[in-house]
What does this fold into?
Amino acid sequence: MRRIKTNLKRFFESKPLTDKEKSFILSALNNQQKYPQLHPNIWKVVCDIESRYKNEQISRSEKNTVRKN
It folds into this structure.
């Protein structure tokens, strides 16, 4: 189901999102209150934002690993 659940919401709250991303996520959360699912285009952007920050976290851990060796 295309919804921003609690774990994903906490993930976004813990990341330094840009103002535009914060605004978009808050808008998506408000839309969830009105509709059972997010529109596929909105959901795609939410997933893109999530993957961008998850990839950033992975790349940072790879850099830390390289520095330690």
